[in-house]
Amino acid sequence: MMAKKWIYEIKSYENYPLRYGAVVDCDDRRLLVDCAECGRVVEFRWMFASLVIQNEYGQGYAVCADCNAEERRRKDRYDRHRRYRIIRQSL
Ligand SMILES: [Zn+2]
How many Å apart are CA 18 and CA 23, to the nearest integer? Predict the structure, then answer.
């Protein structure tokens, strides 16, 4: 299964070789699954939908809390830059 990953620097998706054991969703929330980003094995119920690693329908793969925090930091950083540029252009 090939996933895609959003790359902020180029504002585009790149193919992302998915780890075996990474999932978007699962029936048993206590199931151990692999974090799609770092590969750490975590119970599904403690995971978050990735903001950047997605399947072909745009659904985020499960990532661990640390990777989720890092994804949010990156998203905030790039959103701030975008707002800054928009403000500058409107001056
Ligand atoms: Zn992780």
Answer: 9
Residue ranges covered by each domain of the chain: 2-90
- Rounded distance from Cα 80 to ligand 1 centre (Å): 24
Euclidean distance between CA atoms 79 and 85, whole angstroms: 10
Q: 91 C-alpha to center of ligand 1: Å?
A: 41
Instruction: Give residue 10 CA to ligand 1 midpoint distance, Å.
Output: 23
What is the pTM (predicted TM-score) of this model? Answer: 0.86
Give the model confidence (pLDDT) of 23-62 as tens digits: 999 999 999 999 999 999 999 999 999 999 999 999 999 9
